[in-house]
Amino acid sequence: MSATSEPLLQVRDLSVEFATDTGPVRAVDSISFTVARGETVALVGESGCGKTVTGLALLGLIPQPPGRVASGEILFAGQDLLRLPEPALRKRRGSEISMIFQEPMTALNPVFRIGSQMLDVLMRHQQLTRQQARAAAIEMLAKVGLPAPERRIDEYPHQLSGGMRQRVMIAMALSCGPQLLIADEPTTALDVTTQAQVMEQMVRLQDEFGMALILITHDLGVVAASCQRALVMYAGKIAETAPVATLFSQPRHPYTRGLLASIPRVRERRLERLPVIAGMVPDLRQLPEGCRFADRCPKARDYCRLAQPPLEPIGNAGTEVACYVPE
Amino acid sequence: MSRSEPQAAAAPLLEVRNLRKYFAVPDGWLKPPRQLKAVDGIDLDIGAGQTLGLVGESGCGKSTLGRAILQLQPPDAGSVRLAGESVVGLPRAQRLAMRRDMQIIFQDPYASLSPRRTVAQIVREPLDVHAIGTPAERRARVDELLSVVGLRPGVLDRYPHEFSGGQRQRIGIARALALEPRFIVADEPVSALDVSVQSQVLNLLNQLQAERDIAFLFISHDLAVVQHVSQSIAVMYLGKIVEQAPAFELYAQPRHPYTQALLSAIPNPDPAARRERIALAGEVPTALDPPSGCAFRTRCPLAAARCSAEMPVLREVAPGHRVACHFADG
Q1: Sign (positive/negative) of CA torsion A221, A224, A227, A229?
Q2: Can you say how many angstroms the Cα of residue A185 is from the centroid of all Cα atoms in its chain?
């Protein structure tokens, strides 16, 4: 997909903190990245790496308190979302930037019919009449592959299966034609056969609408199938970013390598032991001075523990890595 | 090594025959409840020191099957024998004795450990319940169990919330091992864990199986996870086993169209891989109202008239390889 000169989204030096009993915890620590128009970027990492908090920060949805954006700017089409007043932000949220959450049952309101929840969005952002909005909603539900949309639109969320609910969420998120969709583990709660269907549908629609997609996920299998570029996060920092093909064929950060090696995958013969990353993610309240991965890293040197490695370009395949001893 | 061979011909450790577990689901006021056939006539054998992987999508009945085998949810019909002895409908004292041999590891390491007990109390509890050893012996046993699962002895007086998900799952495993069971149901034991930690726990389970000759029923929705720990794998759909085969044979030669679709839907962590996914029509039908004949026919690419009229039986198509499909040639 062609990118215009200016990226759709520029995140610079973004930090998010949460107040806890034992002092502030930095869930996202000074990260920077860009997303071009129409691009699909994966935000990958394990629990607590800051990927979801990053997604919420982009939409101004960090609960305050206890959370707060401690630094940075989020330029969307050139405008800093962090400095927009709430009404202006609300106008963009849902129309220009949309988000899909992991658990469709908790993201939909159980006491309203599917239709009325979709109509709310359409009527608020697109100045449609009720009838126009209903027609648009049905069309959108058909697009995301919901069977019998003209009937389903009058049902309640509990009457739909998990896969259908997530399709409704996607239909709602796309109904105003956003330029950027943030999808946080959109298929994690779904069964594997449904997961593949929903992912394929989402990528097809993304293409049709020409929108950019930030896919937040822990699942590298999903990343491989549907993204152009990936940001690998670890303990609040970006460890590595690269085009997906390069990331998988030539991972530079030892964490990325370990993550790729430890994905459960179907193999041709039994391994004596599955590859693992030793140890565990550091406590965000007691982060080390140096590289946050050093304690689990097979290549760590003494100097890795002195200062945090900066994210820097390496090679000429578009990879950036935060490591003093990259592969 | 004998572990990698399919089940031995000798009598299996666990023998399940025609097991059924139905639930009554209310169907509105004054209407008779409807029957949900969660487990609908299951036969399976697990040899000593062997692992049977049990896979299927949400609602297929795999967790209920595990619980029905352990008598945590008493089955409605059928038999479960452990080392030849029936474990169904036992009086309380004998049921307690049976529990020493059959244990469970739960999916959610956050919900399955009491937040108000220390690690030492949690792991020691089965020993207390069964009055095994003196207090000093129990303490020593807890130390040993924690080191077996890879936790430092220093953690004894800490509480579950102080641990990560992977460590909590290790605590749950230590508790399940306390009574030296011969059979363990592991219900999605790594699903709640991050991938880098998943493999640590899978390696631990493999090691325990080899060292202690424990048989496992390893329940998972993830075909890529069960492969590494199982000698044989059974695939469930709407309360029934539709295919069972030696682990690596199932991946190399799946015979049932559902197994084939499940395998093709696993996201491949290789962007260069060619994807030829077998798309299944629609979604899993409700177990309250399963289709006539073959329950899979409504989504099956091969479905024909015969499939709605006649329920396919599970038949052996190769040694240790059973399939319930009219079109599974061989």
Answers
A1: positive
A2: 7
User: What is the maximum span of chain B, computed from C-alpha positions, in angstroms?
Assistant: 68
Residue entry with tokens 């399955």: B112
Lookup: tokens for B323: 């399939």
pLDDT tens string A135-186: 999 999 988 888 889 999 999 988 888 888 888 998 988 888 899 999 998 8
Partner residue facing A269 (CB), from B248, B265, B282: B248
Phi, psi of B117 (to 5 degrees): -115, 150
Q: Do residue B269 and residue A263 have CB atoms under 8 angstroms apart?
A: yes
Which tens digit of pLDDT belongs to each residue from B197-227?
Answer: 888 889 999 988 888 899 999 999 888 889 9
Collapsing DSSP states into helix, strand and coil, what is residue A242? strand
- Cα–Cα distance, B269 to B246 (Å, whole number): 24
Q: Is A264 in contact with B221 (Cβ distance < 8 A)?
A: no
Quote the minimal CA–CA distance from A124 to chain B in Å: 33
**CB-based contact (8 Å) between B84 and chain A?**
no
Residues A115 and A165: their CA atoms lie apart, in Å, by: 12
- Contact at CB, A218 and B194, closer than 8 angstroms: yes
Question: B281 touching A, CB under 8 A?
Answer: no
Residue for token digits 């529990």?
B99
pLDDT tens per residue, range B18-27: 999 999 888 8
